[in-house]
Known about the structure:
5-stranded mixed β-sheet, alpha/beta
Amino acid sequence: MSGTRYAFQRAPATDPGAGPGNGRALLLFAHGTSDGAGAEIADRLAAELTHRDLFDEVAVCFSLQDPRPAEILARLSSPRIFVVPLLACDGRITRDVLPGLIGLADGRERVTLCPPVGQHPGIAGIVAGMAGAAAEAAGFVPGATTVLIAGHGHRHDPTSAGAARRLAEQVRADGSWGAVDCVFLSETPTARHWRTVSSTPDTIVVPYFISGGRHEAVDLPSLVKAGESDVSDGRRVVLTPAVGRAPQLAFLVLDEVLEMARNRAPEMA
């Protein structure tokens, strides 16, 4: 799928009505980036789900880059389309931006909007697994290590920070780590202040970003690095890949779609 402008795939043709997807399409929605470079994780995830042959069609769309939801919805022929937001929380983009973009599209009556995959209960297990792998690779002792959930945050909307803090509570409940807390990009404490938030010798920062992009590649690493240069006291910090890169994410997407289908969620009008 990488390299195409529409990031669109269709499963192998089958008899009408008898296909593996039973007339269902999956549309992954990500924030994207203004420079058009924010499609990597969404494209990879869509390719993986296409190969599983569970939907008649699989495609991706974005808010800030092409293709947009209306463009892809016009290309999908399945009678029912499940839209899964590759977002961490039920914030403004999920509440306002995405429904608005879908509302502009022809065929929107076929759409079922799923919750953001970042709110799936299985995310806590993914974070714990990523932190555990990072600790093992770095030689950190979990009981002497702090795990910091790095969320986006927002100065005027508590939704993002609230989601990160709930996730931290879930990971903390395991009792394996010295501490579990949060840092943010756009509110305090920022990721630059990881030394203040963490009091243990070692720290693992897990980016609570589903679709990666500049926040994973540039913004968060820059803040963590700036915090390292503030003081030289021998404390160690490692940064894991974004949560959206975990291979288990495909299973969470499928679980959300199955749950919505099972409940016969109302389609968007």
